[in-house]
Amino acid sequence: MLRPGRTLRGEQFARPARLVILESFLIALSIVLALFAHRWQEGRENAQLAERAMRGIQDELTMNRKAAQESLDYHSGLLQLLMRPGATQPTSAEFPRGFVMPAQLLSTGWDTAVATDAVSHFDYEDVLSVSRVYSDQERYDTQSLAVSQIIYSELYTRGHEGFLENYANLASIIGTFAYRERQLVELYDATLSDITAATP
Description:
77% of the residues lie in helices and 0% in strands. By secondary structure, the protein is mainly alpha-helical.
């Protein structure tokens, strides 16, 4: 209820300046705290996204390492067969899994991390390390596709036995695969060691 001689407008302006300043300060503080809480929550969600993505990449690289090691073992065995002293022309039966067996390497984890922008929340050194191994995988896949096309073309033209007549060239191709796969396995080991040490 208004005192005699005062209007509502006059009552508002009669409030002490200290109270107005305190109210303004509290409003500003609540806005700052709300922004801070939002930023903190956003940062927490980004960190969780990055951690999940990195764990997915670790799992994928572990599987790829296993696949590369299996191909390396196969190709190393074929090389021993073809390069043994007194080796003669091999038969198709001596290649139970094909003349070459390129590793089937995945990149889904990395592609997903890039697509969801999780990679922007990775440590810079981890991004360098992981991108390097996926880039090397891509070069290996390109080589595998090119060699496979050449082999299929030769098989179509000359047949299995005709193709095996030039087994010295085949040994050279298999040796190249073994060399690249050994490089990949070493790179997987180094990369997995780096990112495992960095992951909390």
